[in-house]
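Subject: Interface between my chains keeps coming out wrong

I've been trying for a while to get a sensible model of this assembly. When I model each chain on its own everything looks fine, but I need the whole thing in one frame so I can look at the contacts. Pasting all components below, labels as-is. Any help appreciated, I'm running out of ideas.
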Amino acid sequence: MNSSIIRHIIRFIVLILVQVFILKNISFPDSFLRHLVLFIYPIYIFLLPTNIPRPLLLLVAFFLGLSVDLFYDSVGIHAATSVFIAFIRMYVLRILEPIQGYKTDGSLSAHNYGMVWFSSYAAILLFVHLLVYFSISAFSFVFIIDIMLKTLLSFVFSFMLILLHQVILKVQ
Amino acid sequence: MRNIILFFAKHGSSLLFLFLEVICFYLIINYNSNQQSIFLHSSNMATGKVLEEQRKFKDFFSLNERVDSLQKENARLMRRVLYHEGYGKAPSIDSSTFAYNLIPAQIINQTILFRNNYLTIDKGTEDGVFPDMGVMDQNGLIGIIQKSNKRHSRILSMLNSKTRISARVKGKGYYGNLIWPNIDHRRMFLEAIPNHATIAVGDSIVTSGFSTMFPPNILIGTIETFETRKGDSNYDITVQLNNNFSDAEYVYIIANYNQESQLEIEAESE
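Reply #2:
Try treating it as a single job with all components included. I did that and got this:
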């Protein structure tokens, strides 16, 4: 129990570091990829076990988003997005529930539930995450086409990144 | 108390979610200049829209008052115009130098299709409207007050077989009487203009100022056709009226302060 909490804390810190020191600096300002953003940190919310109390899940998401915001100079945008997907995570899990049900503890990872299940689960949440993120950034649905294009583009690359993370690391 | 605890147990996480999102949006709007400006702009647009609708709503109910006040203002201005056009003087006047005053009124009933037509207006003796006063609207003459009671007055319309209005061709010295031979509500007949006068189609017909009812030089209409009948020394002139009786709604009663004294001296000399 203790070791799993420590593992989560370490993952929290590492993911933020990777996000703000590596992924934030990857940009292609001169090509059609200039609107691309790469997000790895939402996977932290995806992986949290099912037995985490919901209020705690929301608070963790809030602080995760806020930490990323501090480095992105976009106070509140990542936090709002993270809290939102933490909130809808329960409903997505209910829709995707496997026949044998969820284990009470252990991460919701590809290692524990299979790559196919994890892909669909992560795809839904990641897509919503990006859509909400770009919507709040634009702060107006006037730019809806713009928002959709950015979302699709960023989704493709961020999703590959997240699957890569699951292939390399066997998260318990 | 138990219910409150149960409520929080059931909806606590949703409330926490809303609470956190409110904090996030507070932060977003306060620390991001782009979102802040969009938020302020759209909230201004929203409140502006609401205020505008509210004003329209209020306007609708105060419409009558506003029409009344505008009509009063109009009467004041029209009086200046009449003075200026009638006497060719600068339009700075007070009631002591210009004998005519205008009283605004609204038509509440009228006919135009009969041989003898009448109108009813919403002003009477209480408002200073008395028989034999002239009535005009912004485009021309309407008629003459025939009867007044406290609140209402009856107007003998120009479109009436009894109408005789002294008129002249603008800029010329010829006078005649305007009568209504029941052609239609846009045309009248000008008689007694001698056929040696040089007139043309399109010449303006204005009031002569000889009657006590109308000040001089109010535009009545324009000459539409004129012809000479054999053995007659006068033209037959058809005048197209400048105003349209079918859409007249607001009128001005012309009160002449000197009417009584003029009529008195005219009666004595007869």
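Reply #3:
Confirming on my end. The CA atoms of residues 110 and 167 of chain A lie 8 Å apart.
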